[in-house]
Amino acid sequence: MTAPGRRSSTFTRLLRHGFTDPSAAERLLESDQLAPIRADPVLLEALGTTADPDLALLGLVRLVEAQGGHTAERELLDTLVAAKPLRDRLLGVLGASAALADHLARHPGDWQELVTYEPQDLHPGVAEFERGLAEADDPVSLRVAYRRCLLSIAARDVCGTTDLAQTAAELADLATATLRAALAIARDAAPGDAALCRLAVVAMGKCGGHELNYVSDVDVIFVGEAADGADEGKAIQAATRLAAHMMRICSETTVEGSIWPVDANLRPEGRNGPLVRTLSSHLAYYQRWAKTWEFQALLKARPVAGDLELGAEYVATLAPLVWHAAERENFVADVQKMRRRVVENIPVAEVDRELKLGPGGLRDVEFAVQLLQLVHGRADSTLRSGTTLDALKALAAGGYVGRADAVQLDDSYRFLRLMEHRIQLYRLRRTHLVPEDSADLRRIGRSLGLRVDPVVELKREWKRHRAVVRRLHEKLFYRPLLDAVAQLATGEARLSADAARERLVALGYADPAAALRHLEALASGVSRKAAIQRTLLPVLLGWFADSAEPDAGLLNFRKVSDALGKTPWYLRLLRDEGAAAENLARVLSAGRLAPDLLMRAPEAVALLGDGDGGGLEPRVRAHLEQEVLAAVGRAAGGEQAVTAARGVRRRELFRTAAADIVASYGTEETPVVADQGALVDQVGGAVSDLTAATLAGTLRAVVRDGWGDTLPTRFAVIAMGRFGGHELGYGSDADVLFVHEPREGVDEHEASRAANAVVSEMRRLLQVSSADPPLLIDADLRPEGKSGPLVRSLKSYEAYYRRWSLVWESQALLRAEFVAGDEGLGRRFIELVDPLRYPAEGLGEDAVREIRRLKARMESERMPRGADPTLHTKLGRGGLSDVEWTVQLFQLRHGWDEPGLRTTRTREALAAACAAGLVSGEDAAILDEAWVLATRVRNAVMLVRGRAGDTFPSDGRELAAVGRYLGYGPGHVGDMLDDYRRTTRRARAVVDELFYGA
């Protein structure tokens, strides 16, 4: 007897053999049921090798109890001790699956299935499983027979007799036999229906791919035809009844539970389509209506039950369509979008535990392999396997995937699938979530051979394999393109030139030959630079392909790399700073403007990183002005000074454009910015601040170059139009007024000559041809327009506005804001014009009618000939002009008593009008949405084309690029135009009511 406080030797041995509750295990060993064998050392040794010794022991005791007699108990125990194969198999199953332990307790004779250990029993196929199910004649007996067969599969699996691929194939073969048995039961129940039709059951998904899980939906498609002489309509109805009955036999819950759901939702039209179709109906659907993912699903189609000849005809008929799917427009984008959608639909709380669908999960491997099969399988029939691991092996053998990558992915896929199997086997429940409970993790880890610290080791291995998949699954598609041109060591199969071109075309490259030349130039050789490029390019190619202009992205990347390749920091930045490479890829493939700005000074690439280059955050005006004035101060003369100022402008324009593109496209780490209005405000504010700083620097340079420290007259620049409203776009001119005031004792004519000379020289220097984009100054909003003097004194403005001012000038002055020069003079000018733009008691009715007349005249006369008025962003229906004139009418009429309306910014004034009750919240939101959208379109056109435009591009690729910037995926350009028309049509209805009083 054990002394109090001391543990028994049995307790200690149990701990040593892996039991977590040795006290309970000791009690079970002392039970009468195990008395004949408790002293036998082989029992503890065998239990200690199982995934969960406590679970295995409990299951064994329950099984012995269930034998129902002394003779049966002795037979089980004697065989258990004497026959090591049975001992390993039975205890292995009991230690891995509580559900199969429950089955054995209900059907205690089924342990006999594990006794036989002949060679022909090691790898059974469909025929052997059909024999195992032969006596089942109803759903309940079918379930019992199914579990009996499953017992032997699980035993071979947990003992390592079969590997993952063999186990998955056996599970698929068992599913095939089960579907056949279920269909036979359904036919026996309705012989009349069976006589009317031919019905084929085609397996899809993992069952079709011969790689099934323990518990998974079995995906099927049904094909029906009339039997000889039968009416087709009645035959299809009969086939539908048989198919539905077969599905219920497998899926419904009975006293023996269910087998697995049979899912027919991969059929044409999904759950909304007929359950059974004829072969011709299937063909017509796939020829006309099928989406890319439906052809992807057909990769795994395999006839398994019913009329196998009809099933084979179905597969053969649709195969040509499957292997031409890669020729479909936006093929790769569609497949990748489907993958992203799967990830996005995972609940946030589960994404890190999702073994199948999460990032770095099983689906990543499967999608990557299927993508490559669809691209290259048309020309290479060796790739047409429905089994993931077989297809991966064939892809590596053909050079479509690097051998090292294939080996790593094969290893990781097997590990993740084994985890999935062990998780499902425990309760025989369909799940892909890694459990959180440490006991569950311990059992899974031990079942995979991790015995030192199972929980820690399992988490480490899972994390490692998931990281491998995340790293490789997209590179898998792109890396062989480099191997095809990089001229590296021999000994590995390579992608042929034709296959490389085929893959690039599938990715959306219009000129695959040029793309291959760029890749060869970038990645060939044995230099460190080429080695880093070979690491970067597989990922970059994917990002380029995610744009509307992959060819331009790759070409631009080559140009930047040629310019900076010898600098030590460039490739290091792209390799080591997480955001830099993806940001660069987005910028280089989003259009012409940003790459053009970058090519003029490639060192601006540093802004795309996470380090000290300032990043992509816009800089405030004070800092910009400080830098520009400092650069001007260091320059030797006026031209050199303004060149320096324009250089700062170019760099900051690139920063702004890059930030806009990255926010609009989104990255792997940063989602697309949802608030489009905030993006518009950021661009407008940044470009306006930059323009103000450039003008301030230019003014300083011109004055210093011509007059030294002091100009004979005070001089100020007043921003107007979009410039004054902080709403400049990338291609906007700078609308300004120039005002001066002679200094004390200076002749007015001398002061005027000096002021005009300053304006003339500023305009000249800002437009001198150089590597930097020009800044055009537009002073047409001055008094008397183009006919009036370019610059006036403050007194002259006062006299003009007092005597001659027209209502349109008051409207234009709503945007007036001082931006450069003499701050006191600028302030006095604003004080001068405030009574004009915010007239006391508001506008009279005559003035309101005049504004409406001017607007109507502008709509009829200024719209470009041939332009579509529903798509013109400035003058079209519900466009910028409509919204701005409506808001400005509110300001002119009510600005005198509503302080919030006294702003130069359109959106701010609209919000103030809403707050003041002048416009409803709904109408304000409609106007704001239209104004933001029209502004975004204008910005997009400039980014894409490199020149300003007020309407959508006519070129297909440019239009697609605008759509991509606005958040529309490939193939959705029509949706973009429809959405624009709908948004602006609603805005025009509000404008008609608020502006015209309709």
Topology:
Blueprint: H1 9-16, H2 22-29, H3 41-48, H4 53-65, H5 70-82, H6 84-96, H7 98-106, H8 119-122, H9 126-132, H10 139-158, H11 164-189, H12 191-196, E1 197-203, H13 205-208, E2 218-226, H14 232-251, E3 262-263, E4 276-277, H15 279-288, H16 292-297, E5 302-306, H17 308-322, H18 331-344, H19 362-376, H20 388-397, H21 403-427, H22 438-447, H23 454-472, H24 475-486, H25 497-507, H26 512-523, H27 528-545, H28 550-564, H29 570-576, H30 578-588, H31 593-600, H32 621-634, H33 638-665, H34 676-707, E6 713-719, H35 721-724, E7 734-742, H36 748-767, E8 777-778, E9 791-793, H37 794-803, H38 807-812, E10 817-821, H39 823-837, H40 845-861, H41 880-894, H42 906-915, H43 921-945, H44 956-965, H45 973-994
Parallel strand pairs: 2-3, 2-4, 7-8, 7-9
Antiparallel strand pairs: 1-2, 1-5, 6-7, 6-10
Description:
The protein is mainly alpha-helical and 998 residues long. 61% of the residues lie in helices and 5% in strands. The protein contains 45 helices and ten strands. Strands 1, 2, 3, 4 and 5 form a five-stranded mixed beta sheet that branches. Strands 6, 7, 8, 9 and 10 form a five-stranded mixed beta sheet that branches. It is elongated. The chain starts with 8 loop residues before the first helix and ends with a helix. Residues 1-5 and 487-492 have low confidence and may be disordered.
